[in-house]
UniProtKB/TrEMBL annotation:
InterPro entries xref list: MetI-like (IPR000515), MetI-like_sf (IPR035906)
Membrane topology: Multi-pass membrane protein
Protein name: Microcin C ABC transporter permease YejB
UniProt-listed PROSITE patterns: ABC_TM1
Lineage, top ranks: Bacteria, Pseudomonadati, Pseudomonadota, Alphaproteobacteria, Acetobacterales
Main localization of the protein described in the UniProt heading: membrane
Signal peptide limits: none
Places the protein is found: Cell membrane
Location of the ABC transmembrane type-1 domain: 135-350
UniProt source species: Paracraurococcus lichenis
Transmembrane segments: 9-30, 137-158, 170-196, 226-249, 284-311, 331-357
Alphabetized Gene3D superfamilies for the sequence: MetI-like
One Pfam family it belongs to: BPD_transp_1
PANTHER family (alphabetical): INNER MEMBRANE ABC TRANSPORTER, INNER MEMBRANE ABC TRANSPORTER PERMEASE PROTEIN YEJB
Region (Disordered) residue spans: 51-78
């Protein structure tokens, strides 16, 4: 297993590099960009914003840009019409777009090799600091929703497999299908309307992870307040996630229950409980348990955007969305780098989990 893990870790670097290169190439041809975004703000707020931008860059920045070259550079931006070419050149220099694309790519890759993600173009803060600041919200949503999904789906799927075709199986299947059909964000809106002061009850808060003034409270009080805030957003993510895992668990157990080794175990006098949990469980749960790291990463980074917006939770999903909308390339590529790296590492963790669940699996023996 050690040699296999080393090979997989060695493949992380070229895979990560390929993903970054493809996305960098796409952004070069996509319309708009951070310079265009700033020019649009300048056109809309010509008085205050123009004075602020022109006052931020003085001295050698202004001396390094000649008016005649500034005019030719500014002509490639639609939003630059009517603006001082020197101001446009200063914006390009501030954002690093005065350099050729290959220089910017090289600087970015060298920074990523040292885990230096740069500074956000519009927030003017380190990207790593922004990600760490938003991480607790997304980890809270991803961790609790994933744990609840597994705790509900696995026993329910086993029960449905044991009682396949019964009334219990039929009505639980109907509930599962309804939950699968309702998008998480739509269920989140319903929860807000019913329980967060929308139109009926106001049992739960609608914003943040802690109530105002709870920072100095005791640990127990903050833990209770935190759990109170997490109820509705976690439910919104769970309702659409448990359906697929429940049916996967049921089908996995049904497939194993009818195999020859279970018939042999029953013929030797083993009871149904021993057959189910002593023989079937390990084989049936292989795919489900090993998929936990990937499921957690999926919910953490992709499933909570609209839920974060609805419940005013400032997490990674909202951060990435704002970066894409504002064309904050430094923040976009920094989050892409971290998300992709974590995803690749979690795939390796998933393979390692396979061997923990079933020691008979040997990845090193594969050809």
């Amino acid at each position: 297993m050690g040699a296999y893990l080393l090979r997989r870790l060695a493949l992380v670097v070229p895979t990560l590099l390929g993903i970054i290169l493809i996305n960098f190439a796409v952004t070069q041809f996509a319309p708009g960009g951070p310079v265009e975004q700033m020019l649009a703000e300048l056109k809309g707020n010509a008085g205050s914003t123009l004075g602020r931008i022109s006052g931020e860059s003085q001295g050698e920045t202004r001396a390094a840009q000649r008016p005649e070259t500034g005019g030719s550079e500014a002509s490639k931006y639609r939003g630059a019409r009517g603006l001082d070419p020197t101001i446009v050149a200063e914006i390009e220099k501030a954002f690093g777009f005065d350099k050729p694309w290959y220089v910017r790519l090289g600087d970015m890759l060298w920074g990523y090799a040292r885990f230096d993600l740069g500074r956000s173009l519009f927030r003017d803060r380190p990207v790593a600091g922004l990600i760490l600041e938003k991480m607790p919200v997304s980890i809270s949503l991803g961790l609790w929703s994933t744990l609840i999904i597994y705790l509900v789906s696995i026993p329910l799927g086993i029960r449905k497999a044991v009682r396949d075709g019964s009334r219990f199986d039929l009505w639980t299947s109907a509930v599962v299908l309804v939950g699968y059909a309702i998008p998480g964000f739509l269920f989140a809106i319903l929860l807000v309307v019913l329980f967060a002061g929308g139109s009926y009850l106001q049992w739960f808060p609608l914003r943040g992870l802690l109530s105002p003034g709870m920072e100095g409270a005791s640990f127990l009080a903050r833990a209770v307040d935190y759990a109170w805030h997490m109820v509705l957003p976690t439910l919104a993510l769970v309702i659409g996630g448990f359906a697929g895992l429940t049916m996967l668990t049921k089908n996995s157990f049904l497939e194993e229950i009818h195999k020859q080794y279970t018939v042999t175990a029953r013929a030797k006098g083993a009871g149904e409980t021993r057959v189910l949990y002593g023989h079937v469980f390990r084989n049936a749960m292989l795919l489900i348990i090993a998929g936990f790291p990937a499921a957690f990463i999926g919910i953490l980074f992709t499933g909570a955007l609209l839920v974060e917006i609805i419940f005013s939770l400032d997490g990674l999903g909202l951060l990435g969305f704002e970066a894409a909308m504002r064309r904050d390339y430094t923040l976009m590529f920094g989050t892409l780098y971290i998300f992709t790296l974590l995803g690749l590492v979690m795939q390796i963790v998933g393979d390692f989990t396979y061997t923990l669940v079933d020691p008979r699996i040997d990845f090193e023996a594969r050809r």
